[in-house]
Amino acid sequence: MAAAGAAGAANAQVEVITVTATKTEADAQSIPVAVNALDSSALDELRVNTFTDYLTQLPGITAGGSGPGQSTIYIRGIASTTPNLTVAGVAGLSPNVAFYLDEQPLAQPGRNLDVYAADMERVEVLPGPQGTLYGASSQAGTVRLITNKPVLGEFSASSQAGVSFTQDGDMSNQLEAVVNLPFGDNFAIRAVAYVDNQGGYIDNVAGTRDASESGRFRAAGTVRDNGVPVSPQRQGFQAGADLSGVTFVEADNAGLVQDNFNDTTYAGFRISGRYEFNTDWRLTVGYAQQRVESDGVFFVDPELGDLEIQRFEQDRIEDEFQNVNWTAEGRVGMLDVVYTGAFTDRSTDQRIDYSDYLFVGQYLPYYICDTSVVYPGYTGHAAPTGTCYAPNLFVNSTSQTEVWTHELRATTPQDRRLRATFGAFYSDLTLEERNDFHYPGSMSTVGADGVSVGFLPNYPLTNVTAPPGVTGNAQAGYFSDPGPFPNGVNFRNDVRRTDEQLGLFGEVTLDVIPDVFAITVGARWYDVEVDLEGSANSSFFNRVSPVFGPNTAVPLADRVDAQLGGTNISAQYAEGNPFGAPTSAQTDGVITKVTGTWTPTATTLFYATYSEGFRPGLLNRPGGAAGPGGYTVPFALDTDDVRNYEFGWKTELFDRQLRFNGSAFYVEIDRLQTTIFDPSIVNLFFSDNAADAEIRGVEGDITWAPSSVPGLTVAGAFSFLDTEITRVITPTDDVTAGAELAFAPNVQGNLRARYEWSTANGWTAHVMPQIVYSDRSRSDVIDINSADLDSYTVLSFSAGLAAEQWRVELFADNITNERAELSNNFVFDRERVTVMRPRTVGIRVGVQY
């Protein structure tokens, strides 16, 4: 303890963190905005690298999803639906949390970019609506990754390597290198490269299943694993049928059994250059590229053994992006002017085991069973007979996303009594996605005449019979691949989505009483348009057709007529507006923000805010379908809107040794968007403005650096939430008034203490324990798809030594080996729980050149 005195000054103070939450640099304590910020030191100390890492450290923030590159951020409990394949990408809800890399918004429908946090200056999280400055996707908040920029006139280089071992899992290793190169006094380049191989820890274990488990044969009243009984409108079409005459061929995953099959590799680099023309103007240009490759899945089946799942087809994802960005900063008269732009190109290639669809797929026997099973009333059969082939199902999903963004803004001098930030924003996103649903069992059937049918040709959508009373046929639209489907493909969603957004924004602050009381008024005018074109085609009768006979190539329109009674609702996507359905969803309007700020002392600030946020709508695949009581599935969703009432405080006490920030808020949500599957309305997933909701909460963070114990810093954060659905709009029993929202734990918190001291040989040593807690929550506002996420408590610890150039650290994460449930998916009637990595111990070494 005597040596500890050398580690800190007698009058220790908490560290000042500079943020750009208001699009100008400011001390986080001086702005009337709730900001949770992890600076570069905290990011390093907490070993924050990936999406899951930094979300775990920030209470009030959760994520739904199922692995790298497949998660969606939620803040303050403004969440509704578990993300899953059937609503990903082009058909996915727009995100309600903006995700930024520096000045570029990167939030995308269905999938957020999983940017590796290498060489970051800080991570900023702005909870609550930030729409006036950050636009449509900041309805619930904004997450910003701020990279380190080139430093003029200074050479520096560093590297870090680490290795870790996960209990009952594979070894992981990581390498990162950074260099800053000056060229003269006014130009510098900074580069970082990284590779992180994360070993797997989930086992794919042996199992079998057959089509007798199909939702088609499930009786009403059957209690599902989440405790919700099957309603009469959801019972199987052949519930209670005598299946003794049916031969069920089993799917067997013996060839895919593997321990620790969910390994992942992050690899990438980022390079940026900064040129300073003069004292007023500078230009920064950057390029980043990253590739994520991941096998297996990151969820488990709680009905099996520990960390086990049964998958019957291979799961793999390759997710790659390139990002080019540029920022010009300067002065025009008294204005500070910033123009920033970016182009992001992202491609994903994914193969997903879809066999779990068996448990809810009432129509699945149509595609993999003989016709006598499909048609129980078929002549000659008093009860189902024949063969149902193995339910091996998988999806090949490819997507290509291109995003252009431009923003021009100006700021008046910040030392004036009246000051303002104003500007214009434009973005253009194009997402092309093709999902091929493979049902291999549909290729190996035997016709009624005993002749093997094999595979029949497939045709793209060119002509579809309109519903009764509607004239006109669909015309050929967008097709990424106009040729016949590959063998075994029963369904293909082949769609291009474009999101175009234009905004004009501004915030004005007036010091009513200089240095004591100020009022800020902000507004944003927005115009957002979402367009869809393409097709969602079906290839029915890859087996024998009871209408047209075996070995008969049937035009798609007739095949659809024979199978579904003459309609193909997927034609809603086709170019040419086939049935009077809209092909775009457009919305415009104005949102506002008003903030009052009271600063009674130099170290105390209070604020009260009213702010609004919105999320644009989108088009529905089954739009126009008639439901009960005169309800019609909307062709286009309306925006869902948020009104936020917030009181906050920022304080530094005891000679700035203690910092305590917090806020209390009340949120009203109108027309909450969610995704529904209710056969009493339509036998397809659709999205709707399903409900209104309310949220009450308190959140805060504390940092303590006591002068009595130099070298000690204690930091913690907490969140309390109370969420409720207040009104159900869609006529469905699947959403319940009075129920809580999804991914909204009542209590979350973390606490860590870091103690540093100097050793006798001149090294600096440290120890840092940490505890993270999250209360229980639910995974969906749709009752039948909702499963409970259990509460968890996770402990971590690190200890290390650092010299002038070298540092070494030992660490242990999840010391108690807690099965912390981060997400849950019950969409396919089986609980699939995404869990935190088990106990992991490791060592990392860093060097400064």
Briefly characterize the structure:
This protein has 849 residues and is mostly beta strands. The protein contains six helices and 42 strands. It is globular and about 85 Å long.
Description:
This protein has 849 residues and is mainly beta. The protein has a single domain, classed as Maltoporin, Chain A (Beta Barrel). The protein has a 22-stranded antiparallel β-barrel. The relative contact order is 0.14.
Protein topology:
Layout: E1 18-19, E2 26-27, E3 36-39, H1 40-45, H2 51-56, E4 61-65, E5 71-75, E6 97-101, E7 104-105, E8 120-127, H3 131-134, E9 141-147, E10 156-166, E11 171-183, E12 187-198, E13 203-204, E14 208-209, E15 246-248, E16 251-252, E17 264-276, E18 282-295, E19 299-300, E20 308-309, E21 316-332, E22 335-353, H4 364-368, H5 371-374, E23 386-388, E24 394-411, E25 418-438, E26 489-513, E27 517-538, H6 556-564, E28 584-601, E29 604-615, E30 640-653, E31 658-676, E32 686-704, E33 712-728, E34 747-758, E35 764-774, E36 777-778, E37 788-789, E38 792-802, E39 806-813, E40 821-825, E41 832-835, E42 840-848
Parallel strand pairs: 6-9, 13-20, 15-23
Antiparallel strand pairs: 1-2, 3-8, 4-5, 6-7, 8-9, 10-11, 10-42, 11-12, 12-17, 14-16, 17-18, 18-21, 19-41, 21-22, 22-24, 24-25, 25-26, 26-27, 27-28, 28-29, 29-30, 30-31, 31-32, 32-33, 33-34, 34-35, 35-38, 36-37, 38-39, 39-42, 40-41
